[in-house]
Design goal:
With about 260 residues, the protein is mostly helical. It folds into two domains: about 100 residues, no CATH class; about 80 residues, no CATH class. The chain contains 13 helices and four strands. A two-stranded antiparallel ribbon has the order 1-2. A two-stranded antiparallel ribbon has the order 3-4. The two termini are about 45 Å apart. It binds zinc ion (2 copies). The site of one zinc ion (ZN) has 6 residues, from helix 2.
């Protein structure tokens, strides 16, 4: 797949494709401000302005989450969300101007998490690739991983080279990772020599092992793996020499800064 889809720049592109351009960053700030203000407001008013709630539903639409799905996820009637967006056409009423805080709270609570997105939605594949690479570094062969995912090898290999993947793939890899990261592949039936070959592939590609990633960083394209436990600090470079791993860019930078100081 290509680097970016034709999805317009904005909140959804920021989160799904990790675009960091000015337009996307501004859209994220606007979105967060809108949601935060709407939630704070709802705490003490009998009725709240419907506009921020409406724009939240539209923001979810940019992620491919349609308003009927929003209603279902929020546990609000589809009629209420329909009136919020389009008004009551039969009675010729304009879109709702005020909503109950309870309704607003439920709708604002719906977030574009992986679980709420459609499986076909294209997203950035950085975290998914890192999870698979870490499993290979542990000795899981790509043949075994693709077999467990029920994927043919060609489609499986594409995850490693493409920038974008589908949400369904991200979820499947995430589940596989949670299942396998703490299991020794050889005891699980991967032949010893194949596991060794997989580890070598990871070393030659500098694929980081499971232990180098924090769960809250693995999906962030700007994050670096912590190979040594000291990466990015002045002690990092020595730690690389000790563990015989190539010095990583954050450690090289930390060392340069120390020399300059
Ligand atoms: Zn952008
Ligand atoms: Zn390092």
């Amino acid at each position: 797949m290509t680097r970016q889809t034709r999805r317009p720049h904005g909140n959804a592109k920021y989160h799904l494709e990790k675009c960091r351009c000015l337009a996307c960053r501004k859209a994220v700030r606007d979105y967060e401000n809108n949601r935060y203000r709407a939630m704070a407001y709802g705490r003490w008013q009998p009725f709240v302005d419907a506009e921020p709630v409406r724009s939240h539903v539209r923001a979810l639409g940019e992620f491919g989450i349609g308003w009927m799905r929003v209603a279902r996820l929020a546990g609000v009637s589809t009629g209420a969300v329909c009136k919020l967006l389009y008004g009551d056409r039969r009675r010729n009423l304009p879109p709702t101007r005020r909503v109950r805080p309870e309704t607003a709270r439920k709708i604002l609570a719906v977030q574009p998490t992986l679980d709420n997105l459609s499986d076909r939605t294209p997203i950035d594949g950085t975290g998914t690739r890192r999870r698979l690479q870490a499993l290979v570094a542990a000795g899981w062969t790509q043949a075994e991983l693709s077999r467990r995912m029920g994927m043919n090898r060609a489609n499986f290999s594409r995850i490693f080279v493409g920038n974008l993947i589908e949400v369904g793939t991200a979820k499947a890899v995430s589940a596989l990772y949670d299942q396998l990261w703490h299991i020794d592949p050889v005891t699980a039936g991967v032949p010893e020599h194949r596991a060794a070959a997989a580890r070598l592939i990871a070393v030659s590609n500098r694929w980081a092992p499971v232990g180098a990633w924090d769960d809250d960083q693995i999906d962030d394209p700007d994050a670096w793996p912590d190979w040594t436990g000291w990466c990015g600090t002045p002690r990092g470079r020595r730690a690389h020499y000790r563990t015989r791993t190539p010095v990583c860019p954050p450690c090289r930078q930390a060392a340069t800064q120390q020399t300059a100081a």
